[in-house]
Amino acid sequence: MPDDTQNQDTENTHDEIILDGSQKDPRLFEIIVQKYQAPFLRTAKRIVHQREDAEDIVQEAFLKIYSKAKLFKKREGASFKSWAYAVLVNTAISHIRKYKRSHSKDMSWDPVLDSVLPDPAGFGETEKLEIQSVLAGVLKELPPELKTVLEMRYFSDDTYQTIAAKTGLSLENVKIRLHRAKKMAREVISNFI
Amino acid sequence: MNTSTQNNIMSKLEDDLLRKRIMKKVYMRWLLFKKLPQVLGEIGIITFLVIFAQSRVSFAAILKNAYSAGISDPLGIINFSFNALSHTTPSIKMFSALLIVISVMIIRDIRATRKYNPLSAAE
Question: What pLDDT was estimated at residue A105?
């Protein structure tokens, strides 16, 4: 586990150096695009459900990452990966809002919360890791009681029943608390860039 | 070739196209928001220096003499420049050096943009 953390730190530092260098030599940015394009596309597709829209979101997100690199440098303690995912998710949320406005009659569902942070049950390991990447940057900004339930559900893969047993909350309260935690996580993501 | 392999190839091609589209936009952004202001700034500095020095240096006469020196012998421009600079005041020498440095920077910046031509990035 400490090795994993160390590897992630090294990976993030590596990405940060590339992002920094790409401001002078834009060709370097292709390394970041190559590395994150596939996971970004999967995450965006999970949120908007269509490849064309997902491609537009990914393209816009990469452009924001490149042009807002200075904002990332100012954000103390943020890892490149969590910041990049926050940019992607924010771009997807804006896209959905725009779409919702122009197709308001067809969209009766709340697309944002569940598509950004879907319930991990039934997802493969890769998808779970991507959802964790979205959450990683925001957890520390949540109150402890909300942080705990999110960690249990998304990082420890605990069921609602297990969370209820571990925390002493009722099943209903666990669901309410998880919903509040996801809502707050989304708000934190929105303010991330 | 089975359907799965065909799908993999298609997906890879689509990914490559998307990557090129992204990089094309990145190059364009870099060119418009980073390199262009830099080159324009350097050109602005040269223009300012030339306007500022116009009262002390006759640029028209220098260009005319350089043309006369270079028309018969292209290498004559080097001799002309060397002689002109060695017989001028220290402030004009410094001004000329500054002008040369900024001109080299402009040439370097313009050459650098050719490497990242956004129009060729998607090819």
Answer: 47
End-to-end CA distance of chain A, in Å? 29
ipTM, 2 dp: 0.72
Amino acid at B25: K
Q: List the one residue out of A97, A86, A66, A43 whose CA is nearest residue A51.
A: A43
C-alpha angle A53-A125-B20 in degrees, rounded to nearest 5 = 35
- The Cα-based distances of B49 to A148, A164, B38, B62 in angstroms read 64, 75, 17, 16
- Strands (DSSP E) found in A8-167: none
User: Cα separation of A50 and A144, whole Å?
Assistant: 36
Q: How many CB pairs under 8 A join A and B?
A: 45
Structural domains of chain A, count: 1
- Residue B69: CB atoms within 10 A of its CB come to 19
Tell me the CATH number at A98.
1.10.1740.10
Cβ neighbours of residue B50 closer than 8 Å, sequence gap 6 or more:
B59, B99
Say which residue, B123 or A133, is predicted with more confidence: A133
Looking at this protein, which amino acid is placed at residue B31? L
Range of the domain at A28: 2-190
Asked if residues A29 and A66 have their Cβ atoms less than 8 Å apart, the reply is yes
Instruction: Spell out, as residue ranges, where chain B has pLDDT lower than 70.
Output: 1, 115-123
Integer CA distances (angstroms), A91 to A6, A54, A60, A95, A167, in order: 29, 10, 7, 6, 35
Where do we find the tokens 């952004």? B29
- In the DSSP assignment, the letter for residue B110 is H
**Which residues 57-116 of A are in CB contact (within 8 Å) with B?**
58-59, 62-63, 66-67
Nearest CB to A30: which of B14, B15, B23?
A: B23
